[in-house]
Every structure is written in structure tokens, then in C-alpha cells.
Amino acid sequence: MGFYSGEFREWLETASTVDLNAVQGFVLGDFADRSSYPELIRNHSRAPIIALSETRSLEQTLELFTAGIDDVVRKPVHVREILARAEAVWRRVNTAEEKTTIGRLKVFYDGRDPEIDGEPVTLPRRERHILQYLVRARGRRVSKMQLFNAIYGIYNEAVEESVVEGHVSKLRKKLRERLGYDPIEAKRYMGYMFVDRG
Length: 198
What we know:
By secondary structure, the protein is α/β, with parallel strands linked by helices. The protein has helices at 5-14, 17-21, 37-42, 58-67, 79-93, 125-136, 144-152, 163-179, and strands at 26-28, 49-53, 71-74, 99-102, 105-108, 115-116, 119-120, 184-187, 191-194.
């Protein structure tokens, strides 16, 4: 989702916590007062902040890092590189929150598969991200759209929102087989919630 700088400030200050938690990273183009935005973003989100640079300038790069930017990327850049950089920053920034243990289940936030009773549960990347998101939000209901936004990015029109149901269904089946119960509660029109029934 893209904004002009003024619109972005307004959105950031009015967006719900759940919507902000769905953001996987902020990419800031070149605009006036860009160096003041990292502090504003950090007041609302821990997601990585990446700045795009038109020219190679050590002075500008150092200024952006000093302002709190996590990474600076020179244009043109492929969106997959931005996603990979955001994921790498996220892993570094969130080392304090390496894992969550709920009963027999351990969920890691550093790219590793979860474990049940010490044995890894092999999951595709999107199922692993869904599990991580639901565990972080455990005890709260998460809508299908919020989950979609967290996994695919806000307003991704290339993928149908209903694909989330398929991912969640496969994830629930794998967890149910290993745990003996389903830790993801699904309610029609209301969404999903991770609950500890162990």
C-alpha cells in the first residue's frame, strides 16, 4: 500500500494495533523530512524501515541510519530483494523474542520450523508465518483479512483472500495430528484465534 507523506502520517496515527501488526515493513521513498519519519514509525510499530535512495551518497546513507532507518537500498530494486531485506532486519531486531513456548509447542521467530515435544514440524513458509502471527496474537481473534495482510501484504490484489483458509486448514490438520487437539479456533465471519487447549 502506498501513501504520500502527509497521508502516511495520518494513517499511521489512526491505524489500529492489529492493522499495524500486519505490516511487514515500511519502505520510504525520497521526500522532504524523510529522516523524521523513523521516530514516528517506531512509536507505532517494530516493523523494519527501509529507505530507497536515488543516488549513492555516503553522507545521505549515514544520515538515514542515524535517523533510525534499518536499511538503505539503491534504486532500482526488485520487490523480492526488499522483502528479503525486511525479513533479515526483522530477525535481527526481534532476537529478544526468539521463541514462544505454549505447552508442548515451541514457535520460533527466526525462520526455524516450530517444534512439538522437541521434534520439528515441517511447515511451508506461509503456514509458519500464519502460526507465528496467531501465536503472537493468542487470546485475541484475528480476522481473515488481518491474517491475509500479515502474510501477503496489505491490499495484495494478485492473491485471493480466500487462499488464507486453505493455508490455515492445512496448518490446523498438521497441528491436530501432532498435538491431539486443534489449537486454532475458527469462527465463521469472526476469524481465527490461537488457544492453548493442551
